[in-house]
Amino acid sequence: MRILGLDFGSKTVGVAVSDELLITAQGVEIIRRKSQSKLRQTLARIDELVGEYKVEKIVLGYPKNMNNTEGDRCEKTKEFKEMLEKRCGLPVILWDERLTTVAADQSMMEMGIRRENRKEYVDEIAAIFILQGYLDYLSNHPEEKA
Question: Which residues contact 39 (CB under 8 A, 6 or more apart)?
Fold first, then answer.
């Protein structure tokens, strides 16, 4: 079994996938689109990745505000979740993604990636952090792996 992790943004979706043992998350790619409303090709690409990696579950970053309230991005994420479930036929789990972009940016700084090049990778690395957080949770709650 593999799990796909997604960092859904206004024009990009960062993608990560777990190993078959559900221990680690690896980055796959960043799906880019020309406008916020053009989701058909994005959904098609995610569906292709689901088949390619034999994914059985999707974890979607849920962008709550720091004070735990839900804003406009949460609504768009819920709509995207419904579209994903219809398109892929898989369960989609919303996972709190607060500070994943900050952590991704910090990791890139530590790796020595120049500031102007970080934008190119931040969504994929944020997807890795989202998925790894979920995998770590599962390792501490094995009853939820099914």
Answer: 33, 80, 83
Strand order in the sheet with 2-8: 25-32, 12-18, 2-8, 55-62, 92-96
Angle at 41 between CA 128 and CA 49, to 5 degrees: 45
Length of the chain: 146
Taking alpha carbons only, the member of 25, 1, 26, 39 closest to residue 137 is 25
Predicted confidence (pLDDT) per residue in 24-43, tens digit: 999 999 999 887 677 999 99
Where do we find the tokens 């500070």?
99
Residue 105, pLDDT above cutoff 70: no
